[in-house]
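Q: What structure does this chain adopt?
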Amino acid sequence: MTSENFAPGYILPNISVVDPIENEHYALISCNDDRAMVLRRAHSQFDIFINHFFNEFGDQIAPTILMVLEGNPDLIGIEQASGFRDAIALSYVCKARALRLVHPMSRPLQFSSWFDFHPWIISTNFAGIVGNSPAFKYSNDAENFDGHANAGLPHVEVRRTDCDTLLMDALLGAWKGRFISHPTSWRSVALFRSLNMAYAASQLPSGPDMTHYALGRSVGLWISAFEILTHPGKDGNVGYKNIYRLLHQVPWRDQELTKPTYDAYAG
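A:
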């Protein structure tokens, strides 16, 4: 896609993508990608905005930009953008967590917080920047802006090799089903609701006040993510047995992992 097709959306300040991650409608790209550079050269406020992201020590960082294809208003929205981001983020998180079980000193990305959207974006007319969160709505000039990455995370470069590519390809394919082909299909709706809950569950659980209670909150969110995924629909109910049935359907490569080691519930 050419740069004229795309408009900048959310900024991800905690990561710098090395390779673009995209489909026909959305793209996560480097702020130095050719498509971004065309817009930065054409709009000074956007260029200033991108150049005003720093870490906690004042070192400039290169954020990632979520670009959206213009011309289809049905695909421009927070649910579509978040679904695209969630699919990508969980593909990295799942691989990172699996690797850390075997290699405790493996690369980061085990938390979805690396993929968080910054609350400030460029305005649609490129005349300034606008901020929006549950706590505030505001606008200003890019010259007055100093953006920061999450101080609880090191800013990292993100490569395609860091993700579970099979999972990401499957989830991005499902994204098309959810928002383009079959937008009201219960299974696709449930999948992306579950992904969004999993994104919350895999967030950095706490800051320096970390306790086992923080981990307990994350576990509760993971339970919710699985229950959403297995919910049978409008007139049904869901419980832990539905989750067990789903796990039993997985074709395990290591049969040792299928053994009923623990009794989570009796009866």
